[in-house]
Design goal:
single chain, 19% strand
């Protein structure tokens, strides 16, 4: 059996992610109390279920400390366990709650400063879920539309189940730092194709931009430095039982330099490790299908 456990902060898109897995053939349960996890899996094994997906959130806060031990027990029993943690920037979560007029599950205080109370609830929620976050694949949904999140979840689940997966993510500093980054590199000091008239409207995946950046001494030096750093430490990360490591590469607009380096680094490590590429700004600009 393969089990996917989805957790994350309220308002980050857990229901959307669960629907994506349901569309992919998983038997899905939303907001399962941790006390029922083991009996639920036993029942599904009796029914010979092959793929199940479960969403848990902070509404089960009192029992959440049980989950890490339960997951280890399931792994020892031969069940393939995948963990997804959905997160988003605090400002994004506040905006989503304002738009939907929903109440945060931890918002218990009565105050006229609703925004302050909501931010406090979000910070408390992150603390309560921190143990699960450290062992999960973190997905930043801050700038994702529901269709993008569904595509991202399906891509993650389709990856081979290996000891460690490397995720290379390009982004634009002007739109904020990704909350899912384990390592972040700022490449804004590198030569910028944006100032070349014939390259401005292309991206780091286009041949002309690739050739331009590949021929820049500083770009090659940056690539060698990041590749060398990761090569020196990746085996230690794997020994530390890390399942996913997200390497974020940021430039000004998230179109050229960061995209090029994310693609080049993924290509370099692909022969030894499972890799995934995300281009936050490029993906955000894609039209919905």
């Amino acid at each position: 059996m393969e089990m996917v456990l989805i957790t994350g902060v309220s308002g980050s898109g857990k229901s959307v992610a669960l629907r994506a897995l349901e569309d992919s053939g998983y038997y899905c349960v939303d907001n399962l109390p941790p006390e029922l996890l083991m009996s639920f899996i036993s029942l599904q094994q009796k029914h010979q279920a092959e793929r199940v997906a479960i969403a848990m959130d902070v509404r089960s806060a009192a029992a959440l400390p049980l989950v890490p031990g339960q997951l280890e027990t399931l792994k020892r029993a031969g069940i393939s366990v995948r963990l997804l943690f959905l997160d988003a920037a605090t400002d994004t979560l506040v905006r989503r709650y304002s738009e939907t007029r929903r109440r945060h599950p931890l918002s218990t205080s009565v105050t006229t400063d609703q925004r302050h109370a909501l931010v406090e609830a979000i910070h408390l929620e992150r603390e309560l879920l921190s143990d699960l976050r450290t062992t999960s694949m973190v997905v930043d949904t801050s700038v994702m539309r529901p269709s993008q999140l569904q595509d991202s979840v399906k891509a993650l689940i389709s990856l081979p189940h290996s000891q460690l997966t490397l995720v290379f993510e390009s982004f634009a500093f002007k739109r904020g730092i990704p909350v899912d980054a384990d390592f972040m590199f700022d490449v804004r000091m590198l030569p910028n194709p944006h100032y070349e008239d014939d390259l401005r409207h292309q991206t780091g995946r286009d041949t002309a931009v690739i050739e331009f950046l590949r021929n820049q001494k500083d770009v090659r030096r940056m690539f060698d430095d990041i590749e060398g750093f990761l090569s020196r430490w990746i085996h230690d990360l794997a020994k530390d039982h890390r399942s996913y490591v997200t390497v974020a590469i940021g430039c000004t607009g998230g179109q050229h330099r960061s995209v090029y380096l994310a693609e080049a680094l993924a290509k370099s490590f692909r022969t030894q490790w499972v890799t995934l590429i995300r281009h936050r700004e490029l993906d955000a600009n894609k039209p919905d299908q």
